[in-house]
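Running this now, will post back.
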Amino acid sequence: MQSHRELVAWQVARESALAVHRYVDLHWSPQRASAIEQLRRSALSVQLNIAEGFAMGRGARCRHHFRIALGSAVETTELLEFLKELGGTTDECVVVSKRVEALVFRLWQRSLR
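Update: finished.
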């Protein structure tokens, strides 16, 4: 594998980050600003930590970044579900975010070998 861009986890994380940023552009409001800004950061963090972990090569530093990506993926889903409970229309983003969680979890598990 030549690049982090070949990882399915990175590809879906990028799709999720783009979907989240588009959602935020359409649904930002002062009342939800803190949650929305945290959502934007967490979604982007997944994609960037996968890339950074891949760049580190095998080993503890790679695993560390994949673990951070996993935490950010869970955080992204939690924020989307929180915003949904406040009346947002995040269903499509939640589906993709949950897929990212599963893919990053598997990526992290494989890095432990």
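The chain has a mean pLDDT of 95. More later if anyone needs it.
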